[in-house]
Design brief:
By secondary structure, this protein is of the alpha/beta class. It folds into two domains: about 200 residues, P-loop containing nucleotide triphosphate hydrolases (Rossmann fold, 3-Layer(aba) Sandwich), CATH 3.40.50; about 170 residues, Rossmann fold, CATH 3.40.50. About 40% of the residues lie in helices and about 15% in strands. It has a seven-stranded parallel β-sheet with strand order 3-4-2-5-6-1-7, sandwiched between helices. A seven-stranded parallel β-sheet has the order 10-11-9-12-13-8-14, with helices on both faces. Helix 12 links the parallel strand 10 and strand 11. The chain binds adenosine-5'-diphosphate (ADP) and magnesium ion. The site of magnesium ion (MG) has 5 residues, from helix 3.
Amino acid sequence: MIFDELGLDPRILEAVKSSGYTEPTPIQAQAIPAVISGRDVTGIAQTGTGKTAAFVLPMLHKLSQGRAKARMPRTLILEPTRELAAQVAENFEKYGANQKLNMALLIGGVSFGDQDRKINAGVDVLIATPGRLMDHFDRGKLLLTGVQMLVIDEADRMLDMGFIPDIERICGMLPKTRQTLLFSATMPPEITKLAKQFQKDPERIEVTRPAQTAETITQHVTKSPSDKDEVKRAVLRAIINSCDVKNGIVFCNRKREVDIVAKSLNKHGFDAAPIHGDLPQSYRTQTLDRFRNGELTLLVASDVAARGLDIPDVGHVFCYGPPPNSDDYVHRIGRTGRAGRKGESFTIVSPRDQKLWDSVIKRIGQDVENFWNDDIAAEVENASSRPERRPRKNDDLKQKRGRGRTRDESRSREETQRDEPHKEEPRQEEQAGSEEQTPQKSRSAKSQPRSRGDSDNRKPRRSSKRDDDQGMAFVGMGEHVPAFLQREVEIPDLSKDD
Ligand code: ADP
Ligand code: MG
């Protein structure tokens, strides 16, 4: 199949050609004609299968006729995160280069004024995260009655992040006659329900994912003899040193781990930077850009931060522990070995990780080669023989911050998180970080309009109620935690001792 057979406007075909694509991906080949014919579409295909162009191209085609009116966008694309929204905007600009269409991107971290001006001028396409869209709507600056096509993209991630009620509310504000497209990598029951509720006789297009990992990827596992973080970090360094790494991603299971591992790698002379939902938007964008441009060698990431991001093929993937959800393993190592190129993956498994690793092996249905050499052995020996770190003055302070929780409570909670974080963690991870990821609880359909402003320009929010792994919970104080208790306190650098 070639693009010319899909019935797209010649100007779009021209733009597709200039971007170097010759053949539509399977989801594109099936979705594009269905969307052009006016049908609702439910598209299910794995991350990286080209779902964006599957809706952007037919949308551009349909927009080639007609004009936008002030404050009344003609189409609306909902994305769960700012990065993804920005990525779709790039796609729109690329494929729409030969058409005169206006686009507005409504995401946090950008002033309302600029976005208002764009909307006022009339836009053909509005790309938004649910939170920011509702803020604009609540300010009365936006009319959604002219929207002819709605795209709910990355629907399973919307669910993970608690956006379903927002989407329901947004759908209620759109004309009933619109066309509705929904794209998702997986189809949990909640998404099926959403599709039933808001789509009319949709054409369901499902591209089955490859059950196994690509053959171009050589997978390795290194068994760390100890659960100690110092030892695991030493193993990681030794593995990286044993490879010829051009660029690579180090996946960690938790935000705090991402920070510590990145810091530790830097301290040992590696070129690494962290990315997760708690970091300021500007930093995340800059880090990703540097990684894409080849200016940064190692990206240390959480699964949630990396999922759905269009990061070019990398040579190496390192898993600092197997992921709690074995599907994520396939996604992680799928970041390498794309398009027939060779890639390598290394997973560090400590005794505590063995159960998770067993389920990964079961999931991929193949054995993974053990990786061990003298350098790793030496690093392990070195790290293991180092004396336990004695508590320092500041550690005392840190313990006080976690008041109300005994050591055992903390430990058992951490273990619960380790064992089954795959449902909960994405929520914490993303919600804690940025504005369009505000927990749903506070945003029921009936809640009062409440602008969250440009809160993400500030430092990452620290909620007094947050009970994460950084000891910030204030137990027993209800909603009313005195301000002095919530003050930021210097935290000692935990990676210093290795
Ligand atoms: P998804 O939304 O399914 O995760 P994306 O739309 O982000 O996937 O696309 C993943 C990658 O595939 C992008 O780098 C995109 O440029 C590329 N791509 C999309 N369509 C094609 C195509 N027809 N041929 C080659 N590459 C494509
Ligand atoms: Mg996508």
